[in-house]
Amino acid sequence: MGEIGRPKPANLIIGVLSGVQVLFAQIGETLEGYFGEIDLRSNIQPFHYTRYYNDEMGEGILRQFFSFERLIMPDEIAAIKIKTNALEEAIASEEKYVVARPVNIDPGYINESRLILASTKDFSHRIYLRDGIYAEVTLDYRQGKYESFPWTFPDYKSSEYQEFFLLVRGHYVKKLKGMKG
Fold first, then answer.
1. Per DSSP, what are the bridge partners of residue 46?
2. Which of 42, 38, 48 is nearest to 16 (CA)?
3. Which residue has the higher pLDDT, 155 or 53?
4. If DSSP codes are grouped into helix, strand and coil, which group holds residue 128?
5. How many other CB atoms are there within 10 angstroms of residue 58's CB atom?
6. What is the pTM of this model?
């Protein structure tokens, strides 16, 4: 029989989608207030992988990822998803923007072997966590690179995203080593 143990902490990442470029700085500041210092930010880049969000978010959607200095325990991701959903709703309720959904905020985490995303949507490859939140393994880390699955979103398969995730993973491994020393 295996011993029940405590998992290693993980590196929180949050992906932000928006067609309102000025929101990225505001969201970054708000997220730092919630989750601590951002240690890495991806470039803001065009989101051209799907038109899925265009009806709610308009044209010209952009993407940026944030990585956080403070590590989280994996079971914190459900509460984090609830908090980011509330932030999305608060920004939309301000009705300051011409689109119904000015921002999409997607939290997840990176550990040594995978990238996990939190979701409010159930599907065959997602595991229920709690309070209406599910998790999926989106990318698998093997032999120095990330590998996708049939359900992996097209943008997460891109070399641009994966380069950032590899950078985050490298920082994460250093953080773990720092905790042991």
1. 62
2. 42
3. 155
4. strand
5. 17
6. 0.95
Give pLDDT tens digits for 56-104.
Answer: 999 999 999 999 999 999 999 999 999 999 999 999 999 899 999 999 9
Burial (CB count within 10 angstroms: exposed 0-12, middle 13-18, buried 19+), residue 136:
buried
pLDDT at 73: 98
- 169-172, long-range: CB < 8 A, 24+ apart: 169/11, 169/110, 169/112, 169/141, 171/11, 171/39, 171/40, 171/67, 172/10, 172/11, 172/71, 172/110, 172/111, 172/112
3-class state of residue 51 by DSSP: coil
Query: Locate tokens 């992906």: which residue?
Result: 15
* Whole-Å CA distances, 96 to 17, 59, 62, 161, 168: 17, 17, 18, 30, 33
Q: What is the pLDDT of residues 104-140, one digit of tens each?
A: 999 999 999 999 999 999 999 999 999 999 999 999 9
Residue in this structure with the two tokens 């993980």, named with its chain if needed: 10
Cβ atoms of 62 and 17 closer than 8 Å: yes
Q: For residue 80, give every residue at least 6 positions away whose Cβ sits within 8 Å of its Cβ, in sequence order, or none.
A: 12, 35, 72, 107, 118
